[in-house]
Write a sequence for this structure.
Protein backbone atom coordinates (compact mmCIF):
# COMPACT_ATOMS: atom_id res chain seq x y z
CA UNK A 1 0.00 0.00 0.00
CA UNK A 2 1.30 3.47 -0.93
CA UNK A 3 2.33 5.53 2.08
CA UNK A 4 0.22 8.58 2.76
CA UNK A 5 1.96 11.90 2.32
CA UNK A 6 2.50 13.86 5.53
CA UNK A 7 1.04 17.33 4.95
CA UNK A 8 1.75 20.08 7.45
CA UNK A 9 -1.01 22.71 7.54
CA UNK A 10 0.56 25.90 8.87
CA UNK A 11 -1.70 28.58 10.36
CA UNK A 12 -2.00 31.43 12.85
CA UNK A 13 1.03 33.70 12.67
CA UNK A 14 2.09 37.08 13.96
CA UNK A 15 0.13 39.37 11.66
CA UNK A 16 -3.15 41.16 12.32
CA UNK A 17 -4.79 38.51 10.12
CA UNK A 18 -4.10 35.74 12.66
CA UNK A 19 -7.79 34.96 13.26
CA UNK A 20 -8.60 34.85 9.54
CA UNK A 21 -5.83 32.29 9.16
CA UNK A 22 -7.44 30.08 11.82
CA UNK A 23 -10.76 30.10 9.98
CA UNK A 24 -9.06 29.28 6.67
CA UNK A 25 -7.09 26.47 8.28
CA UNK A 26 -10.22 24.94 9.78
CA UNK A 27 -11.82 24.73 6.33
CA UNK A 28 -8.72 23.08 4.83
CA UNK A 29 -8.40 20.62 7.71
CA UNK A 30 -12.06 19.73 7.28
CA UNK A 31 -11.94 19.19 3.51
CA UNK A 32 -8.49 17.66 2.90
CA UNK A 33 -8.59 14.08 1.61
CA UNK A 34 -7.45 12.03 4.60
CA UNK A 35 -7.47 8.83 2.58
CA UNK A 36 -4.44 10.25 0.75
CA UNK A 37 -2.82 12.52 3.32
CA UNK A 38 -1.70 12.32 6.93
CA UNK A 39 -2.34 15.80 8.26
CA UNK A 40 -0.10 17.55 10.78
CA UNK A 41 -1.66 20.78 12.10
CA UNK A 42 1.00 23.38 12.98
CA UNK A 43 0.02 26.57 14.76
CA UNK A 44 2.05 29.75 15.12
CA UNK A 45 1.22 31.93 18.10
CA UNK A 46 1.03 35.71 17.93
CA UNK A 47 4.48 35.86 19.53
CA UNK A 48 5.99 33.46 16.98
CA UNK A 49 6.05 30.08 18.79
CA UNK A 50 5.41 27.03 16.59
CA UNK A 51 2.99 24.51 18.12
CA UNK A 52 2.36 20.86 17.31
CA UNK A 53 0.57 17.96 18.97
CA UNK A 54 -2.98 17.83 20.28
CA UNK A 55 -5.17 20.45 18.60
CA UNK A 56 -3.15 23.63 17.91
CA UNK A 57 -6.04 25.14 15.98
CA UNK A 58 -8.46 25.09 18.89
CA UNK A 59 -5.71 26.08 21.30
CA UNK A 60 -4.98 29.23 19.30
CA UNK A 61 -8.70 29.89 18.79
CA UNK A 62 -9.22 29.69 22.55
CA UNK A 63 -6.50 32.27 23.14
CA UNK A 64 -8.13 34.57 20.57
CA UNK A 65 -11.60 33.76 21.96
CA UNK A 66 -12.50 32.95 18.38
CA UNK A 67 -15.52 30.66 17.98
CA UNK A 68 -14.88 27.81 15.54
CA UNK A 69 -17.45 25.53 14.00
CA UNK A 70 -17.60 22.17 15.73
CA UNK A 71 -16.03 19.20 13.94
CA UNK A 72 -18.48 17.03 15.85
CA UNK A 73 -22.16 17.70 15.35
CA UNK A 74 -22.85 16.35 18.85
CA UNK A 75 -20.38 18.68 20.55
CA UNK A 76 -22.29 21.17 22.64
CA UNK A 77 -21.73 24.92 22.62
CA UNK A 78 -21.05 24.73 26.36
CA UNK A 79 -18.21 22.24 25.89
CA UNK A 80 -16.64 24.36 23.17
CA UNK A 81 -16.80 27.56 25.16
CA UNK A 82 -15.29 25.89 28.23
CA UNK A 83 -11.86 25.56 26.59
CA UNK A 84 -9.26 27.50 28.58
CA UNK A 85 -7.98 30.72 27.05
CA UNK A 86 -4.44 29.36 27.05
CA UNK A 87 -2.31 26.84 25.18
CA UNK A 88 -3.58 23.41 26.17
CA UNK A 89 -1.29 20.91 27.89
CA UNK A 90 -1.15 18.47 24.95
CA UNK A 91 0.10 21.14 22.55
CA UNK A 92 3.86 21.70 22.67
CA UNK A 93 6.17 24.33 21.26
CA UNK A 94 8.84 23.18 18.83
CA UNK A 95 11.56 24.71 16.66
CA UNK A 96 10.37 25.22 13.05
CA UNK A 97 13.26 23.23 11.58
CA UNK A 98 12.37 20.22 13.73
CA UNK A 99 8.80 19.92 12.50
CA UNK A 100 9.23 20.72 8.78
CA UNK A 101 11.93 18.10 8.40
CA UNK A 102 9.39 15.37 9.18
CA UNK A 103 6.94 16.47 6.47
CA UNK A 104 6.51 15.69 2.78
CA UNK A 105 4.84 19.01 1.96
CA UNK A 106 3.65 22.12 3.80
CA UNK A 107 0.38 23.95 3.14
CA UNK A 108 0.85 27.51 4.50
CA UNK A 109 -2.43 29.21 5.39
CA UNK A 110 -0.79 32.33 6.79
CA UNK A 111 -2.27 35.67 5.77
CA UNK A 112 -0.31 38.91 5.94
CA UNK A 113 3.27 39.72 7.02
CA UNK A 114 5.55 36.94 8.27
CA UNK A 115 3.61 34.35 6.32
CA UNK A 116 2.32 35.59 2.98
CA UNK A 117 5.24 37.89 2.19
CA UNK A 118 7.96 35.37 1.38
CA UNK A 119 9.38 34.92 4.88
CA UNK A 120 7.96 31.47 5.58
CA UNK A 121 8.48 30.52 1.94
CA UNK A 122 12.17 31.32 2.36
CA UNK A 123 12.35 29.15 5.47
CA UNK A 124 10.80 26.23 3.60
CA UNK A 125 13.13 26.75 0.63
CA UNK A 126 16.14 26.55 2.96
CA UNK A 127 14.70 23.40 4.55
CA UNK A 128 14.18 21.85 1.10
CA UNK A 129 10.52 21.12 1.80
CA UNK A 130 7.85 21.38 -0.92
CA UNK A 131 5.12 23.90 -0.09
CA UNK A 132 1.83 25.00 -1.54
CA UNK A 133 1.59 28.36 -3.25
CA UNK A 134 3.87 31.07 -4.55
CA UNK A 135 7.60 31.24 -3.95
CA UNK A 136 9.66 33.91 -2.24
CA UNK A 137 9.71 36.43 -5.09
CA UNK A 138 6.03 36.26 -6.00
CA UNK A 139 4.96 36.32 -2.36
CA UNK A 140 7.07 39.38 -1.56
CA UNK A 141 6.09 41.29 -4.70
CA UNK A 142 2.36 40.66 -4.35
CA UNK A 143 2.36 41.53 -0.66
CA UNK A 144 4.04 44.87 -1.31
CA UNK A 145 1.26 46.74 -3.10
CA UNK A 146 3.37 49.59 -4.58
CA UNK A 147 5.91 47.15 -6.05
CA UNK A 148 3.13 45.08 -7.62
CA UNK A 149 1.46 48.21 -8.99
CA UNK A 150 4.71 49.35 -10.59
CA UNK A 151 5.04 45.94 -12.23
CA UNK A 152 1.45 46.08 -13.53
CA UNK A 153 2.04 49.57 -14.90
CA UNK A 154 5.20 48.38 -16.68
CA UNK A 155 3.17 45.62 -18.33
CA UNK A 156 0.43 48.03 -19.38
CA UNK A 157 -2.32 46.64 -17.14
CA UNK A 158 -4.89 49.37 -16.41
CA UNK A 159 -5.33 50.39 -12.78
CA UNK A 160 -6.61 53.24 -10.63
CA UNK A 161 -4.37 56.24 -9.88
CA UNK A 162 -2.23 55.93 -6.77
CA UNK A 163 0.67 57.44 -4.89
CA UNK A 164 2.99 56.27 -2.14
CA UNK A 165 4.10 58.22 0.92
CA UNK A 166 6.12 57.33 3.99
CA UNK A 167 5.23 57.94 7.60
CA UNK A 168 8.27 60.19 7.89
CA UNK A 169 7.07 62.33 4.96
CA UNK A 170 3.72 62.79 6.65
CA UNK A 171 5.29 63.73 9.97
CA UNK A 172 7.77 66.19 8.45
CA UNK A 173 5.60 67.87 5.80
CA UNK A 174 1.92 66.96 6.02
CA UNK A 175 0.91 69.99 3.95
CA UNK A 176 2.95 68.77 0.99
CA UNK A 177 1.32 65.33 1.24
CA UNK A 178 -2.14 66.90 1.38
CA UNK A 179 -1.35 68.95 -1.72
CA UNK A 180 -0.13 65.90 -3.64
CA UNK A 181 -3.29 63.97 -2.77
CA UNK A 182 -5.44 66.92 -3.84
CA UNK A 183 -3.64 67.31 -7.17
CA UNK A 184 -2.81 63.73 -8.11
CA UNK A 185 -5.62 61.65 -6.62
CA UNK A 186 -8.53 63.79 -5.43
CA UNK A 187 -11.42 62.78 -3.19
CA UNK A 188 -12.81 60.34 -2.33
CA UNK A 189 -9.74 58.14 -1.99
CA UNK A 190 -8.58 55.07 -0.10
CA UNK A 191 -5.70 55.15 2.38
CA UNK A 192 -4.10 51.83 3.27
CA UNK A 193 -0.89 50.23 4.57
CA UNK A 194 1.44 49.34 1.71
CA UNK A 195 2.14 45.84 2.99
CA UNK A 196 -0.93 44.26 4.53
CA UNK A 197 -4.04 42.34 3.49
CA UNK A 198 -7.66 41.60 4.40
CA UNK A 199 -8.41 45.36 4.21
CA UNK A 200 -6.79 45.87 7.63
CA UNK A 201 -6.01 49.55 8.26
CA UNK A 202 -7.92 50.72 5.18
CA UNK A 203 -10.01 53.90 5.31
CA UNK A 204 -12.16 55.60 2.69
CA UNK A 205 -11.53 59.34 2.83
CA UNK A 206 -14.15 61.70 1.41
CA UNK A 207 -12.57 65.07 2.19
CA UNK A 208 -9.19 66.59 3.05
CA UNK A 209 -10.21 67.05 6.68
CA UNK A 210 -10.30 63.28 7.15
CA UNK A 211 -7.00 62.48 5.42
CA UNK A 212 -4.86 62.87 8.54
CA UNK A 213 -6.72 60.35 10.73
CA UNK A 214 -6.73 57.84 7.86
CA UNK A 215 -2.96 58.16 7.42
CA UNK A 216 -2.52 57.80 11.18
CA UNK A 217 -4.54 54.58 11.08
CA UNK A 218 -2.59 53.12 8.15
CA UNK A 219 0.66 54.19 9.81
CA UNK A 220 -0.09 51.91 12.75
CA UNK A 221 0.62 48.95 10.45
CA UNK A 222 3.30 50.13 8.01
CA UNK A 223 5.80 52.96 7.54
CA UNK A 224 4.78 53.13 3.85
CA UNK A 225 1.25 54.24 3.05
CA UNK A 226 -0.65 53.87 -0.21
CA UNK A 227 -3.25 56.40 -1.32
CA UNK A 228 -5.53 55.29 -4.15
CA UNK A 229 -8.22 56.86 -6.25
CA UNK A 230 -11.69 55.72 -5.17
CA UNK A 231 -13.54 54.67 -8.32
CA UNK A 232 -17.27 54.11 -8.52
CA UNK A 233 -16.78 50.47 -9.37
CA UNK A 234 -17.99 46.92 -8.99
CA UNK A 235 -15.57 44.48 -7.34
CA UNK A 236 -14.59 41.40 -9.35
CA UNK A 237 -12.37 38.47 -8.37
CA UNK A 238 -10.75 35.60 -10.25
CA UNK A 239 -9.03 32.51 -8.84
CA UNK A 240 -5.85 31.34 -10.57
CA UNK A 241 -4.45 27.80 -10.32
CA UNK A 242 -1.28 26.30 -11.75
CA UNK A 243 2.47 26.68 -12.09
CA UNK A 244 3.95 27.50 -15.50
CA UNK A 245 0.59 26.96 -17.24
CA UNK A 246 -1.89 28.73 -14.94
CA UNK A 247 -5.60 28.75 -15.59
CA UNK A 248 -8.30 31.15 -14.42
CA UNK A 249 -11.65 30.35 -12.87
CA UNK A 250 -14.89 31.99 -13.84
CA UNK A 251 -15.28 35.58 -12.63
CA UNK A 252 -17.11 36.38 -9.40
CA UNK A 253 -18.49 39.64 -8.09
CA UNK A 254 -18.68 40.87 -4.51
CA UNK A 255 -21.46 43.14 -3.33
CA UNK A 256 -20.21 44.32 0.09
CA UNK A 257 -22.56 44.60 3.02
CA UNK A 258 -20.76 47.87 3.83
CA UNK A 259 -19.63 50.79 1.73
CA UNK A 260 -16.53 48.87 0.64
CA UNK A 261 -15.24 45.35 1.16
CA UNK A 262 -13.45 45.94 4.47
CA UNK A 263 -12.36 43.41 7.11
CA UNK A 264 -15.79 43.31 8.76
CA UNK A 265 -17.57 42.76 5.46
CA UNK A 266 -15.14 39.97 4.51
CA UNK A 267 -15.04 37.96 7.71
CA UNK A 268 -17.61 39.12 10.26
CA UNK A 269 -20.73 40.49 8.61
CA UNK A 270 -22.43 37.72 6.62
CA UNK A 271 -24.52 40.23 4.63
CA UNK A 272 -22.05 40.55 1.73
CA UNK A 273 -23.20 38.84 -1.46
CA UNK A 274 -21.03 36.71 -3.74
CA UNK A 275 -22.33 36.56 -7.31
CA UNK A 276 -20.93 33.56 -9.18
CA UNK A 277 -20.64 34.00 -12.09
CA UNK A 278 -20.47 37.78 -12.12
CA UNK A 279 -23.22 39.38 -14.23
CA UNK A 280 -20.87 41.00 -16.76
CA UNK A 281 -20.48 40.80 -20.52
CA UNK A 282 -18.50 37.95 -22.11
CA UNK A 283 -15.94 40.51 -23.27
CA UNK A 284 -15.48 41.87 -19.76
CA UNK A 285 -15.20 38.34 -18.34
CA UNK A 286 -12.57 37.37 -20.88
CA UNK A 287 -10.55 40.55 -20.25
CA UNK A 288 -10.67 39.93 -16.50
CA UNK A 289 -9.57 36.30 -16.76
CA UNK A 290 -6.79 37.19 -19.22
CA UNK A 291 -5.43 39.91 -16.93
CA UNK A 292 -5.61 37.58 -13.93
CA UNK A 293 -3.34 35.05 -15.64
CA UNK A 294 -1.03 37.80 -16.93
CA UNK A 295 -0.68 39.30 -13.44
CA UNK A 296 0.03 35.84 -12.00
CA UNK A 297 2.79 35.32 -14.53
CA UNK A 298 4.20 38.81 -14.01
CA UNK A 299 4.94 38.11 -10.36
CA UNK A 300 6.16 34.58 -11.23
CA UNK A 301 3.25 33.03 -9.36
CA UNK A 302 2.94 29.34 -8.55
CA UNK A 303 0.17 27.18 -7.19
CA UNK A 304 -2.55 29.67 -6.40
CA UNK A 305 -3.60 33.28 -6.22
CA UNK A 306 -6.76 35.34 -6.15
CA UNK A 307 -6.65 38.41 -8.38
CA UNK A 308 -8.94 41.34 -7.55
CA UNK A 309 -10.32 43.86 -10.03
CA UNK A 310 -12.51 46.94 -10.29
CA UNK A 311 -15.13 47.32 -13.02
CA UNK A 312 -15.60 51.05 -13.57
CA UNK A 313 -19.35 51.69 -13.63
CA UNK A 314 -18.94 54.79 -15.79
CA UNK A 315 -16.62 53.46 -18.50
CA UNK A 316 -17.09 49.68 -18.24
CA UNK A 317 -13.30 49.27 -18.09
CA UNK A 318 -11.77 46.49 -16.00
CA UNK A 319 -8.93 47.67 -13.74
CA UNK A 320 -6.56 45.42 -11.83
CA UNK A 321 -6.37 46.01 -8.09
CA UNK A 322 -4.10 43.42 -6.44
CA UNK A 323 -2.93 39.80 -6.28
CA UNK A 324 -3.39 37.74 -3.11
CA UNK A 325 -0.97 34.80 -3.02
CA UNK A 326 -2.57 33.09 -0.01
CA UNK A 327 -6.26 33.83 -0.47
CA UNK A 328 -8.84 33.08 2.17
CA UNK A 329 -10.17 29.55 2.48
CA UNK A 330 -12.98 30.32 4.92
CA UNK A 331 -16.55 29.16 4.44
CA UNK A 332 -17.37 32.42 2.64
CA UNK A 333 -14.10 32.91 0.72
CA UNK A 334 -14.15 33.49 -3.02
CA UNK A 335 -11.09 31.41 -3.97
CA UNK A 336 -12.57 27.93 -3.29
CA UNK A 337 -16.08 29.04 -4.23
CA UNK A 338 -14.96 30.20 -7.69
CA UNK A 339 -13.19 26.90 -8.34
CA UNK A 340 -16.16 24.91 -7.14
CA UNK A 341 -18.35 26.85 -9.57
CA UNK A 342 -15.74 26.17 -12.26
CA UNK A 343 -16.01 22.41 -11.68
CA UNK A 344 -13.30 21.77 -9.07
CA UNK A 345 -14.73 20.92 -5.61
CA UNK A 346 -12.96 22.03 -2.43
CA UNK A 347 -11.42 18.61 -1.63
CA UNK A 348 -10.10 18.17 -5.16
CA UNK A 349 -8.79 21.75 -5.14
CA UNK A 350 -6.71 21.05 -2.01
CA UNK A 351 -5.34 17.87 -3.59
CA UNK A 352 -4.46 19.71 -6.79
CA UNK A 353 -2.63 22.43 -4.87
CA UNK A 354 -0.56 19.81 -3.06
CA UNK A 355 0.23 18.10 -6.37
CA UNK A 356 1.35 21.41 -7.87
CA UNK A 357 3.67 21.98 -4.91
CA UNK A 358 5.24 18.56 -5.35
CA UNK A 359 5.58 19.04 -9.12
CA UNK A 360 7.38 22.36 -8.71
CA UNK A 361 9.71 20.96 -6.05
CA UNK A 362 10.54 17.92 -8.20
CA UNK A 363 11.42 20.18 -11.13
CA UNK A 364 13.86 22.08 -8.89
CA UNK A 365 15.48 18.85 -7.76
CA UNK A 366 15.85 17.63 -11.33
CA UNK A 367 17.50 20.87 -12.43
CA UNK A 368 20.01 20.63 -9.58
CA UNK A 369 20.78 17.00 -10.42
CA UNK A 370 20.90 17.63 -14.15
Amino acid sequence: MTRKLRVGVLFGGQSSEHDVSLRSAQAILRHIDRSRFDVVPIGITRDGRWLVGGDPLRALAAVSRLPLESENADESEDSRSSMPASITDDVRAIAPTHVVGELDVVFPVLHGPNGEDGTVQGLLELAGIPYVGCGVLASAVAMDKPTAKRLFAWAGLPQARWLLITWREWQHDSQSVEQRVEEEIGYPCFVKPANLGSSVGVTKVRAAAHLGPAIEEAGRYDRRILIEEAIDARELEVSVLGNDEPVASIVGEIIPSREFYDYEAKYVDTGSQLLIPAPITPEQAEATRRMAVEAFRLIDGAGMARVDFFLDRRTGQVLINEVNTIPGFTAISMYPKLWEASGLPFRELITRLIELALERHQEKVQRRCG
Summary: Confidence is low (pLDDT under 50) at residues 72-86.
